Amino acid sequence: MKFNLSEWALRHKGLVLYLMILLGIVGIYSYSKLAQSEDPPFTFKVMVVQTYWPGATAREVSLQVTDRIEKELMTTGQYERIMAYSRPGESMVTFIAKDSLKSDQIPDVWYNVRKKVSDIRHQLPQGVQGPFFNDEFGDTFGNIYVLTGKDFDYAILKEYADRLQLQLQRVKDVGKVELIGLQDQKIWVEISNTKAAQLGIPVTAIQQALQQQNSVANAGFFETGTDRIQLRVSGQIQSVEELKQMPLLVGGQTIQLSDVAEVYRGFSEPAQPRMRFMGENGIGIAVSMRKGGDILALGKNLENTFAKLQKTLPLGMQLQKVSDQPVAVKRSVNEFMKVLAEAVIIVLLVSFFSLGFRTGLVVAFSIPLVLAMTFAGMNLFDVGLHKISLGALILALGLLVDDAIIAVEMMAIKMEQGYSRIKAAGFAWNSTAFPMLTGTLITAAGFLPIATAASSTGEYTRSIFQVVTIALIVSWFAAVLFVPYLGEKFLPDFNQLPVRAPWYQRLWARLRKRPEPEPVRPVHALDEVHDPYQSGFYQRFRKLVNTCVTYRKTVIISTVGLFILSILMFKLVPQQFFPPSNRAEILVDLKLEEGASLTATENAVKKVERFLSTQEGIDNFVAYVGTGSPRFYLPLDQQLPQASFAQFVVLASSLDDRDEIRRSLDQQIRKLLPEVRTRVSLLENGPPVGYPIQYRVSGEDLSLVRQWAERVAQVIGKNPNTTNVHLDWGEPSKTIILNIDQDRARQMGISSADLARFLNSSISGAAIDQYREKRELIEIRLRGDQAERVDVGSLASLAVPTSQGSTVPLAQIAQIDYSFEDGLIWHRNRLPTITVRADIRSQQQPATVVNEMAGQIEQLRNKLPPGYLIEVGGTVEESARGQSSVNAGMPLFLAVVMTLLMLQLKSISRALIVFLTAPLGLIGVVIFLLLFNKPFGFVAMLGTIALSGMIMRNSLILIDQIEQDIQAGHDRWNAIIDATVRRFRPIILTALAAVLAMIPLSRSIFFGPMAVAIMGGLIIATLLTLFFLPALYAAWFKVKKP
């Protein structure tokens, strides 16, 4: 005798009730333990190798340093791409690991990179500093604070910032606390070269005197009979005043340092990247969450700490909030919970209206039970609550009631036909449990390509598969184990007299002041078996199915025609990668010409600050001068430090204000700063991309690459949908070349290296010692006075010391020429590469704009010299990479589905019939996306793949029912029609529950297109299952009318 789980459940009611209560408690506990964050965790597979070669040009750095490191890194074979830039004196190589590598493989790759680069350290030119490695790019500093105080000395501000950093580090769930916009303190000793030459004070004398007096040297100790007594020598500099009074021996006389030099305390010059909040310099304090933490709990803890810390600050010093991720997450979670509640209500209404109140109660009780089991599964597999998993929960909600509806509907029908409760539950198990399990697994398999997608995009969306699969599998167990128990408790006894009309029919009659409808014909135990399928509606539906099966060729040809039409119309659907985020921040990028000073960048920033302070609808704004914002949002396209760049993060008061401010800023800032390249953008969803339109031009000869890049830029510029078209580099930087008369210089004992060191010391400053103050080590730097440093015209008269102790004007030993050179050289996989970038001014999607230009770009490509490339980058490239990683999982999906179908149907023919219905959902997908003007993005594509699983589930249950009827002795024609009639209600109800549960989700920016695609696909596919599938079955097996 076969084991029947549903009958077992009814024989062990106490145990089943205990299990339900236990799982409910475990689910509630698991929900409280789930980690909450804004985005799913994904690994940034990026490592930066930075090297410095002071004095070298960008071209020298590119050839001698960058190229060697790139060449060695290419031997790892584990890179997606290697990007590198060379600036004067600086090389930065960015190693981007293969997208297909799993997160746990990345540490080994980074070890390999470090080892490879360290192996060639001896091959780099002399004087190179580094290489230095950085692979910490994934930290998200969700909470950023800023410490400001106009009237406070920077040193005091820094001291308080250090104190706050230490206190925030103690807060529960805090990972890292970093200070942003710090300026290194310096003690400057400024001496005029002319004055030093007149007094005969060589620079080395000052350095030597300071080091000899300020050094920490061991003077030994006395070892007596009772004690060990340490000896200490005074002389170490305790203050700037002491440094000013430091004696110098000049010509046999002692003078103080302040007699010949100006000594003062200041900061790095030129300044380091800084942070400005609401037009005021400040020190940023960025806080990240530890791995697996709860962002909402962290937010609460930080809020309490923040309030306490503000009270500890002196008057005039303020600690303000710049970015608050917990608030954004709370809003997002609340929004999703509201959508989830709406979806639950919709599903319950569907159940109550279609199944009746008491039958609907069975489904109603199964929903919280399945959700509780799903939360337990999520906790077990370490899936947190974030925007992807929450959306997946809502998507799963429409599917997890399917099994419950099928099981309870079958049980109710059998009880109507006079079966006892235990016999009806047993029949439901025998007839639907295994087709239902196969259907559930096929639906879950529809999400399999997401699970196997080996890419950042796949990693970002993987929790859709995890959550839906957990929900579907536990929903099947609930349907066969708990639904019979709930049915036994809640289903009405159809054998009792009288059976009244459904409650909603009675309510509708009362509202219209009509008599109560006739009760359903009672069923007696000895009476003939009542057949609910003999009602007028089912008779009409039977005729319709009969017609479809009779005119099967017309139905099949029409359906195939519709499918081909939908494929052709698919080209009209706008394509997208990921939609923009619904965060209220706006990013404003300012990029001055390459080689611009930080002072010029700061002046541009101040202009924008004055403009922003007059705008309404802005809560606050923060500017990062000389660098981009820290990663306060996981998919942020982080910008590298460069003096000519600044980035604003403007926080709008609301989403409506955000869109209005963005449009206004875009136009106003361009008028305000016409000479600066500006960009106003929103935060992205999914892996960061940057500019939506990008074309890379690569080749060996830099000048040729620039020419072709300019031609590509012309093509892009002519497109009416593009704006802000530019090359990412190419403009030359100003340079002064000193052509030394080597003969004359040698006679005076001056070498090129001596002159370079002297000029560096005079203009930039040379480190001569350190001043120790508490925890700080402050560099003491010696340089020329302001006139010699700032006025380029005074360079010719600069007094250069000779080996004989005298000085000579620079113009006597060198000719001064003014010229230009490459300020920046970008490489991609060792080839010089210029990227042409652009934004989109219209509502068009990037893929549409790229397709418009494809013909012209192809013409340029055909004219390229051998070895030169024009490649599409940006959104289109990232989307294609994500798409191909999903496509790689399709063979597995097809194999799993086909295996499941064969196990259930045991016939290749029947399995193929089910399989052929899968793509038909595309008809509805295309119609609905066009109807609601939604783009077909990456998430919608995942929905369409998953949709095929949902369609095959319905087809499988119908085909299985036909087979059961044939085995029961029915002729084939009537088996097809009877099975379709009997499966009509569960198929329609499950589809209706799934479709209507999607309505709240369709409002979501991120999941909206996916919800619309599934709604459209499921509606059309359900109709086709009921009309096209019987016709296809009849045609396939050549079934003749009896």
What is the quaternary state of this protein?
single chain
CA distance, first residue to last residue: 37 Å
Work out the strand percent. 15-25%
- The rounded Rg comes to 37 Å
Which percent bin holds the helix content? 40-55%
Return residue spans where pLDDT drops below 50 for at least 5 consecutive residues: 522-529
Give me the secondary-structure topology:
Blueprint: H1 5-11, H2 13-33, E1 46-52, H3 58-73, E2 79-87, E3 90-97, H4 106-119, E4 129-134, E5 143-148, H5 154-169, E6 174-180, E7 185-190, H6 193-199, H7 203-214, E8 221-223, E9 228-230, H8 240-244, E10 247-250, E11 253-256, H9 257-260, E12 262-267, E13 274-277, E14 280-289, H10 295-312, E15 318-324, H11 325-355, H12 357-380, H13 387-400, H14 402-416, H15 421-445, H16 448-452, H17 456-490, H18 503-511, H19 536-550, H20 552-569, E16 585-591, H21 598-612, E17 618-625, E18 645-652, H22 655-672, E19 677-682, E20 693-698, H23 702-718, E21 722-727, E22 732-740, H24 742-747, H25 752-763, E23 766-773, E24 776-783, H26 786-790, E25 799-801, E26 807-809, E27 814-822, E28 825-828, E29 831-840, H27 846-863, E30 869-873, H28 874-887, H29 890-905, H30 908-917, H31 921-931, H32 938-967, H33 972-1001, H34 1008-1036
Parallel strand pairs: 7-24
Antiparallel strand pairs: 1-3, 1-4, 2-3, 2-28, 5-14, 5-15, 6-14, 7-12, 8-9, 10-11, 13-14, 13-17, 16-18, 16-19, 17-18, 20-29, 20-30, 21-29, 22-27, 23-24, 25-26, 28-29
Helix pairs in contact: 1-15, 1-17, 2-12, 10-11, 11-12, 11-13, 11-33, 12-14, 12-17, 13-17, 13-33, 14-15, 14-17, 14-33, 15-17, 15-29, 15-32, 19-33, 19-34, 20-31, 20-34, 23-27, 29-30, 29-32, 30-32, 30-34, 31-34, 32-33, 32-34, 33-34
